[in-house]
Structure prediction request, 227 residues.
Amino acid sequence: GESVGLHLPTLSVQEGDNSIINCAYSNSASDYFIWYKQESGKGPQFIIDIRSNMDKRQGQRVTVLLNKTVKHLSLQIAATQPGDSAVYFCAENEYFNKFYFGSGTKLNVKP
Amino acid sequence: NAGVMQNPRHLVRRRGQEARLRCSPMKGHSHVYWYRQLPEEGLKFMVYLQKENIIDESGMPKERFSAEFPKEGPSILRIQQVVRGDSAAYFCASSPSSGLAAWEQFFGPGTRLTVL
Prediction:
């Protein structure tokens, strides 16, 4: 299958700073993407999604950017908090309900 | 409104035994997905089911693994004759059957399988 990968496996940021987590995807036919947050010992939690007809979507403190030209996805977290410490995955929808997940980026928020 | 339920949360089996993992989707959801996650890795799609139907099992190993989602009751992921390589966290997700929300999958807390 197509691959979904991340540039940075671990990201450390200071509390209050902004965080940017990146994701590359290789299937140009993918038309829907989701960012998930996974805390230790828990299942993935939906954060935000974006469809391929959009370049940007904003939620509460989070923004997802999609660059279809270079097949790149990013998640921006504003004013990062200790509770944001987790592993973040991007998921790429290949067709219908089948998703491919990247290997994840671990976000460490330093107080 | 309860979320996706999985049980057991932790399961220990010896090599050669069978493992049965159960998943109850969110109320009103008729689509179930199973994923496997190895330590420090992402989730790998295994199978997608609707009630009484397997829609996509392209991620399931050809042998020893099976899944079902009966008309009544939870979805079951069954692993026969477990081996140490089956040790992983198994996550179930569910989604509604239609509408834009059908694309969003809600995940359960997972079952952590350890094979001794």
Chain B touches chain A at residues 4, 31, 33, 35, 40-45, 48, 55-56, 58, 91, 93, 95, 102-110 (CB under 8 Å).
